[in-house]
Amino acid sequence: MLVEEAVDYRRELYLGITFSRSLKKPIVIGSSEGGVDIELIAKKYPWKIVERVIDPLLGIRRYDAMIISKKMGLQGETRRKLVDTLMKLYELFLSLIHI
Question: Most buried residue, 45, 72, 87, 98, by most Cβ within 10 Å?
Answer without folding.
Answer: 72
